């Protein structure tokens, strides 16, 4: 199994980037390491819980719908004064998430992201796509 790569972070660094294998283990690690980084940034309580849930949902989607064998997915978080921006990138650009008013067979997915984030969307990459969301820090 490949090791995960991360950027050096500290409580002062405004950005956190992590590459993980597109497996259920990788999705779990994304949430756990995001929670740790949010704690280092002083994001706590309901704001941290919301950000962790968004990371978990987007990481799960990247693993479930964006997996390409041999390609990692990437978690990137950036903080500013008011928000944490969460980005999950995968290698499947043709499989774009669509907003839904009803839960799909897999669960509440993007309904949860819509409820917790102030905004979310999808942007293209050279290879694949990035699904992003902004979550209030307070």
Which properties best describe this structure?
138 residues, 3 helices, single chain, six-stranded antiparallel beta sheet, 6 strands, alpha+beta
The overall average pLDDT, rounded, is 86
The gross shape turns out to be globular
Q: Give the termini distance in whole angstroms.
A: 38 Å
Number of strands: 6
Number of helices: 3
SSE order? EEHHEEHEE
Radius of gyration from CA coordinates: 14 Å
Strand order of the largest sheet: 1-2-3-4-6-5
DSSP strand (E) fraction? 25-35%
Structural class: alpha+beta
Low-confidence parts, pLDDT < 50 over ≥5 residues?
none
Largest sheet: 6 strands, antiparallel
| Relative helix content | 25-40%
Short précis:
This protein is of the alpha+beta class.
Structure, explained:
Strand 1 and strand 2 form a beta hairpin. The relative contact order is 0.18. This protein has a 6-stranded antiparallel sheet with strand order 1-2-3-4-6-5, with helices on one face. Helix 1 packs antiparallel against helix 2. The chain is α+β, with helices and mostly antiparallel strands and 138 residues long. The protein contains 3 helices and 6 strands, in the order ββααββαββ.
